[in-house]
Structures are given as C-alpha cells and as structure tokens.
Amino acid sequence: MTSRRLTVAGKVAMLIRAGLIAGLVLAGLSYPFTALAGMGVKAGTEALDNMPEQLTETPPAQTSYVYAADGKTLLTMFYEEHRKHTDLDDMSPYLVKAIVASEDTRFYEHNGVDPKGVARAFVANQQAGGVAQGASTLTMQYVRMALRDSAKTPTEALKATEQTAARKLREMRLAIEVEQRLSKDEILERYLNAAYFGHRAYGIFAASQVFFSKAPRDLTLTEAALLAGLVKAPSAYDPAANDRGAALDRRNYVIDQMRKMNAITAEQAATALRSRIKLKLSTPPNDCVSVPEKHNDWGFFCDYFKSWWREQPAFGSNPQEREAQLRRGGYRVVTSIDPKIQRYALRHVLEKEGRGSTFAHGQVVVQPGTGRLLSMAVNRTYSLDQENNGQHTDWRKKDDEKGNYPNTVNPLLGGGDMAGYQAGSTFKIFTLLAALEAGLPLTTSFYAPQRFVSQYITAPGPATCGIYWCPKNSSKSMTGTQTMWSGFGKSVNTYFVQLEQRVGAEKAVRMAERLGLRWRTAVDKELATKEHAPDWGAFTLGVSDATPVEMANVFATLAAEGRYCEPLPVLSIRNPDGTHAVYQERLVAAPRCHQAVKATVARAATDAARCVTGYGAARGHCGWGTSAMVYGVLQRPVAGKSGTTDGNKTAWFSGYTPQLAASAFVADPDNPEHLVGSGRSTMSKYTVAQTLRDALQDEPELKFTPPSDKLVW
C-alpha cells in the first residue's frame, strides 16, 4: 500500500473511529445503516482498500457550435446536454459565493469530507425522523457528477447515483483524493461546469443562457443566487414554473446564507431580498430544425453538413458514433456557406418558382479548387411540419400523403439518400471528357442526322426502333456535320451517341464516377456495372439520376482545370481546446483534391462548353448555343451545359467561371412523371447566370486557358 493510499484511507478511517460514518449515511439515505456504524477502524480501512484510489474524470459532454463562413453568424448547435466550458475567471464573483453558500458553507475549511457537516446532518435527520439535511460537500457532489459523466454503461451510471452506503464511502474516499490533487478553485470550476440547472441546461454557461440570455460573467447577485439554488433540486425550484414561490424562497435562502458568511453586506442582502425574479428565457437551438427563422433556407445546407459529418471516420467508427460525437464533442465548426451568395441564390430561385409550387427549383454553388459548398438554395421551407402542405402530385398517393411543399426536410439538393433527378444532356460532358482523354480532338466530326440508329440494343432511353436504340435530336436544325464545339453547344443527341460509340459508353460511365457521381437507384447501379456499362448507350443523354451538389462539383472540376475536390461544407473544425480536428495527420476540414483529368483535357472541354453559353470558343466554331442568354446576363467568361430530359421531366443548367461553379434544376421530387413543361426550360439558366453575376460583381474578371493544339486538330 502506498503512503498516499494510507493517507486517504486513514482520513476516512478517522471518520469511522469518530462514529460519523453512520451519520454520513443517514444524512444522505432514507434508512439507517447500522452495520457500517459498527464497523471497526481496521475493517473499515480494509473495505476502503478495495475501492479506486483516484477519480477517473472524463470531460463532460459539450455543445458543438456551427457557424456560417463569416465565423460569426450561428447556424445552429448540436448537443445532448447543452453545455460549454467556462473558466472560473469568466464567471460572476457572486456565483462562486452563492454556490458555496448554497451547498457547502465550510468548503474552504474541509479536505473533501466535512465531519461537522456530517454530525449536523445526522442530528437534524434524527430529529426530523427522515432525511431533512444532506452532508455531501461540493467536492463529494463533484465526484458524483464525474462518476456519472465517466460511466460507460447504464450500470456504471446507476452506481454513480444510487442511494447506498458503498456509494457514499466511495465518494468520501475520492473526494479526499481530489482535494489533494486539485485546488479549491479548480474543484469549483469543474463543479459549476458539470452541474445540472434544469431545462436541459448543464453547466453554468448553459444555465445563464437559458434563464437570463446572458454570459456567466454578467450574472447579478440575485441571478447568481437563483441559479445556485437550483442545483439542489432543479425541478422543485424551477423559476420558469407558473408558481415561482419555491424558487423565490430558495433564492432568498441562498442570499441569506451569503450574508451570514459575510460574502455580501447586510445592505446588499436586503436589497436583493426585495427584488422580484426576472427571467429572460431562451431556448438554445439544437440540430438543423432549429436554424434561425430568418435563415431558414440554410436548413438544407445544415442537413448536408450533418450528413457529411456522419461519413467522416475522424469522429467515430460508424455514423451513429460520429453523430454522437457531434452532439457531445464541443466543436467549433465554421462552415463554408457564404451568407451573401446564399442570399443571391435564394432570391433568384424564388423569383422564378415560389415555395408553394409543386415543382422544386434549387441551386448549388461550389468553389472550384476546394470543393467548398458556398450556397444551397431551394424554394422550400425547411420544416418537419407538413400539416398544411399541398396535395401530393402522384394520383396514387394524393389521398394518403401530403406533398413535400412548401415544407420539407428532404435533402432535395444532395447529401441524403434521395437519388436525385435525371440530369438530361448535362451528362454529355462525361462523353466529351472521355473522348478528349482518349485523344480525340475537338475537331472530331460526325454527320448528325435527325434520328440515328445506334449500335446499342434497345435500352432505357428516349427512342427505340426495332431491336436497336434510335435516339433523335430535339430540333431538325441540328442535322448536319458537327464537331465537339457545335455538337456540345447545340446539344446534338445524334452527334454524341456516335461520339460515345467511338470511345465506348463504359468510359463515359467511369468518367462520371471519377468526377463524383454515385448510383443510388437499383437500375442505375445495375447499368453501371462492368457487365452492362458498355451497352448503356442512353447514358450520354442523362437518363441516370444525379444531385445538384454532384453536378455543380463536376463543372467546378473543369473550372479548376481537371482538379477534382470532394464536396466540402466546412472551412474549419476546432476541438474544445482550440486545436484543429485532425485525422491521420490531416486537417479534417482541409480540401481533399486530386487531378481527376489532365488539365489539357479539362481546358479542351471548357472550350466546347463555352459554345453553350454564348461566350464563344477560343479555338473553334460554335454555331449557335442552347443557353446564349447566360453570357448575355453574366457578361464575363462563362461555360456550362443545359439539360432537359425526354418529355421535359426536368430542366437543368450547370455553369462555371474560373472562380465559381453552379448547378440549378427544376423538377417535381414527389412525382418524376409530373412534367415541368417547356415553359420552365430556361429557368435554371437564368437562375445560374444571375446568381454568378451577383456573386462575382466585386471580383476581377478571369479568363479560361485556351486548349492546346494537341486536342484541337
């Protein structure tokens, strides 16, 4: 046995010899424990030898704070127990005096266990015939909290708080050990950060916010006394209850105790006792449904962030562990959402399709070279309340389900388990890149008839003839010989099917995967397999589903000259101690990028994509473009691709400059067969063009690098 152990056990043995253990037990329990009272010093000391020598302290759960890119605007918080560590120096001096007066007036005199307090409680309880007074010191209470917070199983948590003599003995021993190791101020600081004050407020920071909407350093005498009085019985003394009598009596008791301890003057006490309870209650936000009302549109971004967090191995071995860590870890997260760009994006989305529309119109803006998501806007209200939502647009469901408009929490822009929407001709970018990578130059030409009999056997697609798939163009004006510039600019289906045949459909599918697309439907997963991808001719026309986040990031990769970066919703993640969160020697919030395609290939693809927007190619002839209004609105270098599906089920546009990339869509998420119609075919084009224009208005005009001769001729 070490000398330290003898010291701790000896101190408790002295209490046994003095006959005070029975009093301690009676002071804290509702039944006598005579067996322990009769225990001798030797037996008592031997019993203590089997108890842990030192308290294992696990930092208590803390609230994680999530901010916008400015680092100031709070999106929301995540917590199981709302708590944030506060240094003692950042607490009102009244608070420290009040908690000592309320819970342990001899705190500065004892060594963890107070024999006088035990004796006093014993006498009071004997006279009352029950438990009228406790004997736990502040240190013993802190030990109990630490044991509870360090529990790894429900059984351990129960043992930390159960009303037994063994628990009291354990607290005594560990309290004496803690007093040998920590200063009184350190104990008080830990106590005040661990105590429960009611209303899901754990620790003094949360309590100050919840009851008074202020910081702990700003608490007045009466406010400090009120909070100090709560820890004894938060529910019984709840000041927010209809009847504040119990809370007032408890507060006044604490004030009176402070006066008796000379912690405050008689005049201060008299003034404080006359004051009424004045609360300024607040409910701290928790999770994405608590995003402030004025920033409700940020809820969809918040949901994406949460989904992203659940995928990060830095925070646990599975999604459940990672989310629990978000709610307990006390992180300070600065996200990538730019309030200014988000405001522009939402305005232009809502100008074209209001929240009450059955059609969802949304847009995502990405920063090339980092993958950071700067904006996620959609014409929906982020809310779980669907009571007043409109009728479901699928006639088979309209009698049983509400539509997801205007309120929803569905991940309409990406990040959840929704498959997304058919992206139409925007998928031609994958065939274009695959062909350029295979060495085919931009001048590669084919005669593009109105209808083309492909080599592919009949498959899901816009048209079939016999056993072969026979796609056609949307306009007879597209008939003729086309190059990559004109074929892409005009979105000529029969040109791109021939280009796909030349390079191989599987290469286009694999290019899409390299640029971040994931197959979420059973059909897409099957067709993307090695066995079926070579025959997936309709892939180039966008029959697969994709999300706006994915498509915006595809074109951001081209803006970054082939450098692909994973979609990233954060700028920084800091641990409670201020250090950056790291995983495998890498900052968790750092961009994760690699060269997905050669810069020469990306530059060549961009030159063709310039034809779409009306900006014009640097090295070739475009003819007319499907989205010439984009350059007309933006008036700076811009490239992109529009896309509509067969029958106008969806309408997309993805556009990019060297600084920003954006992708917008319009579709009915509830019913893919509900056609958006030709009247909405230009909606996404204008939304992207106007958002990029406003977002870049104070930025310098940068130009694209023209393609090299190798991929031109």
Description:
This protein has 713 residues and is an alpha+beta fold. It is built from 26 helices and 21 strands. A five-stranded antiparallel sheet has the order 5-4-21-20-19, sandwiched between helices. The model is unreliable at 1-6 and 16-45 (pLDDT under 50).
Helix content: 25-40%
Shape: elongated
Query: Total number of helical segments?
Result: 26
Total number of beta strands: 21
Helix/sheet category: alpha+beta
Roughly what is the average pLDDT, rounded to an integer? 90
Give the amount of beta strand, in percent: 5-15%
The biggest beta sheet reads:
5 strands, antiparallel
Low-confidence parts: 1-6, 16-45
Side by side, the strands of the main sheet go 5-4-21-20-19
Question: Rg to the nearest angstrom?
Answer: 34 Å
How many angstroms separate the termini? 87 Å
Quick gist of this model?
The protein has 713 residues and is α+β, with helices and mostly antiparallel strands.
Key traits:
713 residues, alpha+beta, 5-stranded antiparallel β-sheet, 4-stranded mixed β-sheet, 21 strands, 39% helix, 11% strand, disordered N terminus
List the helices and strands and how they pair.
Layout: H1 3-17, H2 21-28, H3 34-37, H4 41-49, E1 64-67, E2 74-78, H5 93-103, H6 115-128, H7 138-150, H8 154-161, H9 165-181, H10 184-194, H11 204-212, H12 221-230, H13 245-260, H14 266-274, H15 299-309, H16 319-328, E3 332-335, H17 339-352, E4 360-367, E5 372-378, E6 381-382, E7 407-408, E8 421-422, H18 428-437, E9 446-448, E10 464-465, E11 468-469, E12 480-482, H19 484-490, H20 493-503, H21 505-514, H22 522-527, E13 545-546, H23 548-559, E14 563-565, E15 570-574, E16 582-583, E17 586-587, E18 593-595, H24 599-613, H25 629-634, E19 639-644, E20 651-656, E21 661-667, H26 683-695
Parallel strand pairs: 1-3, 6-7
Antiparallel strand pairs: 1-2, 3-15, 4-5, 4-21, 8-13, 9-12, 10-11, 14-18, 16-17, 19-20, 20-21
Helix pairs in contact: 1-4, 1-9, 2-6, 5-12, 5-13, 7-8, 7-9, 7-10, 12-13, 13-14, 17-26, 18-20, 18-21, 18-24, 19-24
